[in-house]
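User: Can you write out an input/output pair for a complex, sequences first and structure second?

Assistant: Here is one pair. Inputs:
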Amino acid sequence: MYVIAWIAFIGLSIKAGGILISYIVSLYNEGAAKDLYNGMNLLAYKEYSLTQYTIIVGYRFIQFSIQAYMAFLVIKLLSNLNIQRPFNANALKLMQIISYCLLLLWAIVVIHNVHVGVLEANTGISGELLSSEFIYIALIVYVFSLLFKRGLELQSENDLTI
Amino acid sequence: MPIVVNLDVMLAKRKMRSKDLAKTIGITTANLSILKSGKAKAVRFSTLEAICKALDCQPADILEFVAD
């Protein structure tokens, strides 16, 4: 798990960095917007408006940045994990931050999809919609963090039972 | 907390050291210290029984209710 979290963190960081660099290159090179990252074609947006193109790239960059940050939080969570005493305040805090990040990610994806939809209706540029199922994962992680909080209270009570 | 642990008093009466009591009843000195300082949230019946046996006393000699 720890190794997978590290691989995810490095991969997502490269993805976020790659998009940012490709965006900077695409400002000076028209063709770069055609294949911004891994086949992501945003040339139509760039030809329509540089501002819209920047905002669309911004959504993707923020999305991958948040995902990379979440992978980093998972690394921290796993590195501090102690099976003998699994409930601790630090892990609880990390789980809560992860659930808030997922909620933020969902909000960004929803805003992105609405933006793409509005652009499609007004200009006819069809864009790729992002999956907005983060809300379910956010809720699950949040519920788990609440259970974790109760577990922490029980563990603390158990520790103080002589 | 309204429950006061008078373990120190009983230890003094029996002229026993905390370290020896901890060893006799099979708990760590750190846990005995938690119990003595009143930081403990609960006491197991087995622990109470062991303390009463070791100090030859009743639970009421160790625990006392004092209203806030």
